[in-house]
Design goal:
By secondary structure, this protein is an alpha/beta fold. It has seven helices and eight strands. The protein has a single domain, classed as Rossmann fold (3-Layer(aba) Sandwich), CATH 3.40.50. Helix 5 crosses helix 7.
């Protein structure tokens, strides 16, 4: 279970220079993956919504968002921040209180930061999604993971659960079959250069199909996109200060 304390620590880290770069790239990756989906009148459930940082991005993108958390304290934070913009639900990630295909999309953005067993969470997300899923995870094929193993990375990076991309795709195929997917990673450099003015910091700004960035994102399309004009994503709002 993702505790209130662990999310507090994570939110505090996002205010650090490394955290701000990480958050910026996570939002950039989210916008890129969302850009291929119709969003007008579509619903999305974020499983593991935390304090609501990405629920707000989903709302800004034109989706009708709902958030789900296991911890009521986290949901209280979202209510204070977003009010009536979002529907909130308290439940286990592995037992979603929804019918099959209830949402157009399901997003797992920060869910696997602190979850070591993705299979039951993915199975439930797949059950309630009708058109697609977004899945983010911390990539074990990355310099951030290497620094964690060397025990020299920032304290925050040593707490993450990391997943091998090969294992993730094998699991996705087991649960969801052969569906179209789009895959990108970002934050190619080690955590030491997750700073805007660090040497070689520019390599962290790329979104690449190479499986070596610290943050990986997968978009699964369960149904062909509907015909029509897609809404452009808004220009990103300022990151928290």
């Amino acid at each position: 279970m993702c505790t209130f304390k662990s999310v507090q620590n994570h939110t505090q880290w996002l205010l650090s220079p490394e955290g701000r770069v990480s958050l910026k790239q996570k939002k950039k990756l989210l916008e890129f993956l969302l850009s291929g989906w119709p969003r007008r009148g579509c619903t999305v459930l974020e499983v593991g919504c935390g304090t609501g940082i990405f629920l707000e991005k989903l709302w800004e993108a034109g989706l009708d968002p709902s958030g789900l958390e296991e911890n009521p304290e986290l949901l209280d934070c979202v209510r204070k921040h977003m009010g009536s913009k979002v529907d909130l639900h308290l439940s286990k990630y592995t037992a979603l209180p929804f019918d099959d295909d209830e949402f157009d999309y399901v997003a797992l953005i920060s869910t696997f930061d602190f979850t070591s067993d993705p299979e039951p969470v993915l199975a439930e997300a797949f059950r309630v999604a009708r058109r697609g899923l977004l899945i983010f995870f911390n990539n074990s094929w990355s310099l951030a993971r290497l620094r964690k193993k060397m025990n020299r990375g920032p304290e925050h990076t040593r707490k993450f659960d990391y997943i091998c991309p090969f294992n993730m795709f094998r699991l996705l195929r087991k649960i969801m079959g052969k569906n179209y997917c789009r895959f990108r990673t970002t934050l190619l450099g080690p955590p030491d250069i997750w700073r805007e003015n660090a040497p070689l910091a520019f390599i962290n700004h790329f979104l690449t199909p190479l499986p070596f960035g610290a943050l990986a994102g997968v978009r699964i399309d369960l149904a062909p996109p509907a015909a029509g004009t897609l809404l452009p994503l808004p220009v990103g709002s300022p990151d928290p200060v």
